[in-house]
Amino acid sequence: MRISALLLAAALPLASSPVLAQRQSTDTAALSPVVVTATKVPVPLGASTAATTVLDGAELRARGVSTLMDALRVVPGITLGRTSGPGSQTSVFLRGGNSNFTKILVDGVPLNAPGGAVDLSTFTTDDVDRIEIVRGPASVLYGSDAMTGVIQIFTKHGGPRALSLRAANRDAQYDAGATIGREVLVAPTTRVHGSLNGGYHRGNGFLPFNNQFRNAVGSAAAGIAGIRGTADLAVSYADARYHYPTDGSGQPVDSNAWTGSTRLSVSASALGRISDRLSTRVQVGRATRLRSASDLADSPGDSGGYYSRSHGRTVRQLADAQLVAALPWMTSATLGGTIEAQWARMRNWSEFGGFPGTSSFDRSRTNRALYAQLSSGGAPLTVEVGGRRERLREGSAVNTGRVAIASEPLPGTVLRASLATAFKEPAFEELFDAGYSIGEPSLRPERNRSRELGVETRLPGGFVTLGATAFDQRFRDLVQYRYIAPGISNYYNVVAAWSRGLELEGRLAPVHGLSARGSVTLQRTKVTNPGNGSFGALEEGKALLRRPRRQGSLEVAWSVRRTSLSLTATRTGARDDYDYTAGTRRRLAPFTLLDAAAELPLLGDATRRSLALTIRGENLGGARYQNVYGYATPGRVLWLGLRARD
User: Fold this and answer.
1) Which residues of 314-353 are buried (b: 16+ CB within 10 A; e: fewer)?
2) Whole-angstrom distance, CA of residue 259 vs CA of residue 612
3) CB 451 within 8 A of CB 137
4) Model confidence at 14, in pLDDT bands (50, 70, 90)?
C-alpha cells in the first residue's frame, strides 16, 4: 500500500471514526500498530513521518518487565541513567539531549515539572496498554519540553481480569499487580468500557543499610464509544518512597535520608464526528506532583553536617482542542489550540553548622498556543508541514515548525526526511528567586534545530524489516548556573552543543510465534560553547556527559499457545561522567545486561481461567557496572511468581 494512501486513510477515516480508533488503540497486539503521538490523530505506524517506536504493555508484562526504565532500554536513541538500584532517580537522554529535553505524557497529560525533567523511577508497567516513543523534535504539537522527543504512556482502558504475584531471591523484593476490566455492548453500535489497575513494589535494596523502597501505583478508566464519537476519562496515581545512604560520591554513610513523591494525573477527552470530512477532539487534563525529602542528623551528636527537609508541589493543567478536516486533492488538515497553566510551590528548611535557614517558592505561568499541521499526499509522495506559535510569560512568544516528506519509491520501501525546530521554556527556579538562588526573568527559551533522514524496507515475504535513521541536532541558548557575587543572577543563556547519530533497526518474524528485534545506535555529542564549564562538567570540544557513542539491544521471543520465552541483551558503550569530589572527568566502562523470562501454563486453557508460572532473570551475566560515577548497581536477580487470568 502506498504511503500516501495510508496517511490519508489514517488522517480522515480513523480520526472521524472513533469506534475503530478506540478498538485499535486498545488492541495493538492483534492489529497493525497504530500511533497517535506523532500526529495527534491515529495513523498506522508505517505511515508516520517521524521515527516512532511502539511498545505493547501485554508483551512487556509477559517478559516480566515491571519498570518503564527496563521497557525503554531496547528503544534506539535512548540512554537511561539510574543512580543506583530500584527506586533511585532515573533519567532519560533521548538522541543526546539533556534529561529535561523529553516530554513525558500519560494519556495526553504532561508530567514534566515546568521546564524540567521527570524522574522515571516511579513509572511501572502494571497499568500500561502501550508506550509510544517519538524520536525527534515535537514542539509543533506539544510545545515546550519536547526538544528531542516525546514518550507517551497510554493506560489500560479495559481487558480481562488478572492477578500477578512474584518475589525475588534477594533484598526482600516482591511485586503484586491486579487488573479488573470489562467492555459491554449496550447498543448495536455503542460500547461502554471500564477498568481498574493497581500494582505494589517493595524491597530492602542491595546497599548495606537505609536502602528500602516502595512504590504503589494505580489507574482507573471509563468511556463510551459510538458511531458519532467517543468520550473517555482516565486517572493515574503513584506514591513512592526511596531511602538512600549514599553521599555525593556514592559512598554509603547516611542512616536516615529519604525522598518521596506522589503524582496524580486526570485526563478527560472527547472525539466527535461532525461529518464525513470533519471531526473534532477536545481534551482537558491536570497533573499534580508532591515531592518531599528528609536528611536530618544521623544521631544527637551529629552537629557538623548539612540537615534539610523539603516539600514541594507542581501542577500542570492542560486544555487542548483540535479540528481535523479532509480537504480536496488528498489533503488533510489539523488545526488546534492549547492553553496550559503551570504552578509550582516549594518550601524547605536547612541547617549547616548550627545556622538555620528557610526558603520558599510560589510561582505560576500560563501559556497559550495555536498550531496547525497540513498533510498532502499523492502517490508516491506525502508532504507534511506544521507550525506553532506559543505565547509565553509576560507576552513573549516563540515559533516552531516542522517540514517532513515520505516517499515509497518501491513497494515496501519508505524514505523519510524532515527539518524541525523545538524549544524548552526555562524552569521556574531559573527564572525566579528561589531562596538560595537568584533567577533571571529575561532568560530565553532553549532551542533545538534538527535534520533527519530515514529509510525502512520490508523484504519480500514480509518476514524481515530493516530501517536506518540519521539525525543531526543543534542545541543553543542552553541555561547554565553561575555564581559571580551576591545579588547577581545565577542563570544565563550561553551553552551550545550538537548531537549527531545513526539508528539502525531490524525486525524478524520467520514463523508464527517466533520474533526477533534488534537495534544499534551510533551517536556523537560535542560541546561548542561551555560557558563557565559548570564546575568542569562541560568542556569545549568534549562530549556531553553520560551519552555513550555506541549502544545496542537484541530481543528474541517465542510464544506458542500460553507458553512464552524471551531473551533480551542490551549493550551500553563507554561514556564520560564527572567526579564532583575530585573535580575531574571520569570514563565509565561499557557493560552488557542479559535478561531472560518465561511464562509456563499450570492450569486452564486459552478460553477459560488460567494460572501460569512466571520466571525472570535480570543481569544474568553478573555485570559489574555504573550508570553514574561512584554509585554501585545491583547484581543478578531472579524472580519467581504466578499470574492468573480470567
Assistant:
1) bbbbbebebbbbbeeebbbebebebebbbbbbbebebbee
2) 36
3) no
4) very low
| Residue 552 vs residue 187, higher pLDDT | 552
2's grid cell: 502506498
What digits encode the pLDDT tens for the residues 462-471?
899 999 999 9
Amino acid identity, position 309:
R
For 257, list phi and psi in degrees, rounded to 5.
-75, 140
At 186 the pLDDT is 85
The whole-angstrom distance between residue 349's C-alpha and the CA centroid of its chain comes to: 32
Whole-number CA gyration radius for the chain: 24
**What's the confidence (pLDDT) of residue 536?**
78
Residue with cell 519480500: 460
Alpha carbons 72 and 76: distance in angstroms, whole number? 9
| Distance (Å) of CA 453 to CA 49, 456, 591, 612 | 10, 11, 30, 45
Query: Strand 213-226 relative to strand 34-35: parallel, antiparallel, unpaired?
Result: unpaired
φ/ψ of residue 534, rounded to 5:
45, 60
* Chain length of the chain: 646
Q: In the predicted model, what is the mean pLDDT of residues 354-366? A: 77
Residue 35 β-bridge partners: 43
Q: How far apart are CA 469 and CA 95, in angstroms?
A: 11
DSSP secondary structure string for all residues of 475-542: EEEEEEE---STTS-SEEEEEEEEEEEEEEEEEE--STTEEEEEEEEEEEEEEEE-TT-GGGT--TTS
Taken in order of first residue, the domains within the chain and their CATH numbers are: 3-645 (2.40.170.20)
* 578 backbone dihedrals φ, ψ, rounded to 5°: -130, 130
Beta bridge partners of 519: 505, 553
Mean pLDDT of 380-389: 90
